[in-house]
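Notes from hallway chat w/ T.B., transcribed later so I don't forget. T.B. wanted the structure written out for a chain they're using in a teaching module, and asked if we could keep both sequence and structure tokens in one place. Agreed to drop them here.
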Amino acid sequence: MFKQDKTLTLIKQFLYLSLLLLGACEGTTAAEISIEKTIEPIQTQKVVQPIVEEDLWQYIANRYTLSAVSQKDLFWHIDWFKKNPDYLTRVTKRAKPYLHLVTQEVERAGLPIEIALLPIVESAYYPFSYSHGTASGLWQFIPSTGKLYGLKEDWWYDGRRDVLASTKAAVRYLKNLSKLFKGDYLLAVAAYNSGPGRVQKAIRKNKRLGKKTDFWHLDLPAETRGYVPRLLAVAQLIKYPERYGQTITPVDNRPQLKVVTLDSQFDLATIAQWADITLDDVYSLNPGLRRWATPSNPPYAILLPIDQVAIFEKNLNSHPKNARVRWLRHKVESGDSLSYLAHKFKTTSRQIKRVNHLSNNKIKVGEYLILPVAQRADNDYTLSEKQREKRRLNIKKTGTRIIHTVISGDSLWRIAKKYDVQINSIVKWNHLTHDKPLKIGKKLVIWQAKKAKLSDLSELTRVGIDINRKVTYRVKSGDNLSTIANKFKVQVSDLKKWNKLDIKRPLQPGQKLKIIVNVINSKMK
């Protein structure tokens, strides 16, 4: 009985403890729930997205890596822009279609982003820019460097003006220059302007003299000494336009252009129509196009506004291939030749031969040839090379305008001598290349300075005008005392007396002579 009572007691105690434990567990659970309700849930950390500036100029300005030693080095250039506040406004507006493409190529190559501003210094972002030194395009490539970097040139096309091709070439060139100068981009930019050999020569000279060899301490041509600071000054002006009183035209930070590869020749008027843009737009975006059509040897990569590509491709797919260029069936007449027909129909002999499967230049009277012809009149292709040249001939400058037609035997030297002007002036006025022969029949514009109309000698003497003038003449190759005396209408004996010349010593090119000329009898202006 006792054992039963004890057993019952133990059972009761166990049940009691179990209930207590269950109650404790229930109480703990409630407490935990209560605590969870009072604690804020852990926040998931948000990934901060990088800010991409809407204005491409600001995007560029926020990523500068190049700088001057002192702002004093940029003062003159910044001051010039402050005095000409409209200039940068016009240039930044002109850069709008091309800037994103250029910036992409610069960044892709790992170059400092300021290089995207270099066309401002080189060409003011004008795609048809041309210098009297025969450099052309946004990046102002000269023919030899352009050829070295794969920029082709033929009758239809000039790769130095092609926005995409020239940008890729300029980026490659600057990349190579940066390697040559061991990552010093200021030296690379200086070499882009004056040539790597000249910069290397200046570096070697400073090393011999124990001087520093960075850009700021080199003895370089004046143009190059100003070239690098001008780029850095432009960068400052774009970053802080308000500070310097500049207005920068905003450019959307998104692609503006898209490449469309053409697999055959196109009349530019057809491209304009199918893309719903103007002919001037086609030329402006593709300034490498020289004539009325794309090159006759496809493929050709044309740039179109990105928003117009879809409509162009739709038209491309819905029109037959023979609608891209008009073709004329021409019956060969007496006197016809491939070169004559090519000139008449504004194409090339090579294209006529290729299209008509000719193995040589011989054509027979009475046979038929297929020839490409432009859809519109010459004047409609307003930005073709020929039309730009016409406008250039009509630009007004100081002096008297003369149109000279090149004849057999003409040379720049002979023409310059005939009109008493400088050879470099003829080259500049007509966008010529020094080393290319002149084509017979080509028209050149010559601007002759107006000569003062002088009254008779007695009238000049009466009013006290000195009819004698002292001039300094620099001896040229081939000069002698007799030719110089004849040029200035003076005596050889006077030349000897004025300059104390020794007749036994020949004149040297570059030697300076003092000459007293009569302003009436002399040929001088």
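Follow-up for T.B.: The CA atoms of residues 201 and 268 lie 47 Å apart. Might be a good example for the class.
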